[in-house]
Design brief:
This protein has 467 residues and is α+β, with helices and mostly antiparallel strands. It is 41% helix and 18% strand.
């Protein structure tokens, strides 16, 4: 019966693909748009040329708005339409102050659903592909605040990254994973090894793309998540290209190499394993959109972790109140669409970056997330996931005058996995988890705990010290 069901699903999937399912439903599922991103449609192509004929940049007015907007604190004033049009004209003419106002004031306001129908003419200008592309090439951060639902988002992103590969950092997480973007990033430089190639394979989604990159440089295999390295096909090609990766392969793969002989792996074990994995992958891909639409019955599950066998449960009472949980630190880019969907839906914000920084116990994971800014407001979050249960510890911040110090001094405006280290995980006698972190800044390191209290992560300050 199971075999018949699998055959039916595969056939159904093939029919759907043949009917253009892949280009519509599947692509929409993998790359957006997120449910609360405003739809961008009915762009008047003549609005931009008509605007540019009449527009002029008044620098003094622009500077007054800029200085007022970037005063410390939240911006609460209402900017008039003539002032907005002056910002647009100045941005088109290359004024730096106008770029930042475009990002944090004009585009940010339009991301609010309430403003979707406020001014169709304004939207036809700022969302005109030529306008977006010109601004993005000069100021790539604009890509953060353009809604993914824009029909030209991918084309603008590709052209901007081709012009400046560093613009990749400002794409929303969904489009960082697009194969056209990762392929462009991989080929950004003609060198054998560079940072862009490492970033490309980290965000690549398909085994075919990963294989291509690994065959160029076998060491890129080490950039793959642990669960992806378990693919014997990719491991084999990495080993052939550079045998330095051999000690870092999963034990199961090494056993195959030792038992069968590396030269025989592609003919037998690898091909059989690859076929099985592809079949399972197709089935999972076909049912994921349906599965994600259904409410999860595990959302309220209690966290369950494995404790070392050496620990005596009886010792949890009395003197030993806590028991250590085994964990492993890492820094892995997260590309799994289900995880992305869950976090974005719960926080109601787009992700710019998501890293897994540790795995603990049984199916426990710790993530660092950075979300798309909302005007001057920024949000970074530590996410703890155990099975289907997700907990958050939020770190909100307001844009600083220099734009380079949002959460910490000289942090480059990034809430990054590089700054966080998980030092310890313990389970209390009443079943709650306690996570100890170090948050490293340029000058100081903060030590703090995150304590699970009924599904909430409560922050407990420990100490800080200068580097």
């Amino acid at each position: 019966m199971k075999i018949l069901v699998m055959i039916f699903i595969c056939c159904f999937g093939g029919i759907c693909y043949a009917q253009g399912f892949e280009e519509s439903t599947l692509n929409n599922y993998l790359y957006g748009p997120y449910f609360n991103d405003p739809l961008v449609h009915q762009i008047n192509k003549n609005a931009l040329p008509d605007f540019l004929k009449k527009a002029s940049c008044k620098t003094s007015v622009l500077n007054d708005i800029y200085n007022d907007f970037f005063q410390p604190g939240i911006w609460e004033k209402v900017i008039t339409m003539p002032e907005i049009k002056n910002v647009l004209a100045c941005a088109w003419n290359g004024k730096e102050n106008a770029y930042e106002l475009m990002e944090k004031m004009v585009y940010a306001k339009q991301l609010n659903e309430a403003s979707v129908t406020e001014n169709k003419t304004l939207r036809s200008i700022i969302y005109h592909p030529n306008f977006m592309l010109k601004i993005a090439k000069a100021y790539p951060k604009i890509l953060q605040v353009i809604p993914d639902s824009h029909p030209n988002y991918l084309q603008v992103a590709i052209k901007t990254v081709a012009h400046n590969p560093n613009a990749f950092n400002h794409l929303t997480l969904r489009f960082k994973r697009h194969p056209k973007v990762t392929a462009l990033l991989f080929n950004a430089k003609s060198t054998y090894d560079d940072i862009y190639k490492h970033m490309a394979i980290q965000y690549a989604l398909s085994d075919a793309e990963r294989k291509q990159y690994i065959m160029h440089n076998g060491l890129l295999y080490l950039e793959l998540p642990i669960e992806v390295r378990d693919n014997p096909y990719l491991a084999y090609h990495a080993y052939v290209q550079n045998d330095f990766v051999y000690p870092y392969m999963p034990p199961r793969i090494v056993d195959v190499f030792n038992d069968e002989g590396a030269i025989m792996v592609p003919r037998y074990m690898t091909k059989l394993t690859l076929i099985k994995q592809k079949l399972i992958s197709v089935i999972r891909l076909a049912i994921r959109p349906i599965k994600d639409m259904l409410p999860s019955s595990n959302d309220g599950d209690e966290i369950a972790v494995n404790i070392n066998e050496e620990d005596d449960p009886g010792e949890l009472e009395g003197e030993n109140e806590f028991s250590d949980i085994v964990f492993v630190n890492e820094r892995t880019v997260v590309t799994d669409i289900r995880t992305i969907n869950k976090i974005e839906t719960k926080k109601k914000r787009r992700l710019l970056n998501l890293w897994r920084i540790a795995r603990f116990g049984d199916n426990g994971q710790v993530f660092v997330a950075m979300f798309r800014p909302n005007g001057k407001e920024h949000l970074g979050t530590i996410v703890v996931k155990q099975n289907e249960r997700i907990m958050f510890s939020d770190y909100a911040a307001v844009f600083s005058m220099d734009g380079e110090s949002i959460w910490r001094i000289d942090d480059g405006g990034a809430f990054s996995a590089k700054s966080f280290v998980l030092d310890r995980v313990v389970k209390s006698s009443d079943g709650y988890l306690n996570f100890s972190f170090s948050w490293k800044g340029t000058y100081t390191t903060n030590k703090f705990n995150l304590v699970d209290q009924g599904g909430l992560l409560i922050k407990e300050f420990i100490n800080y010290y200068f580097e």
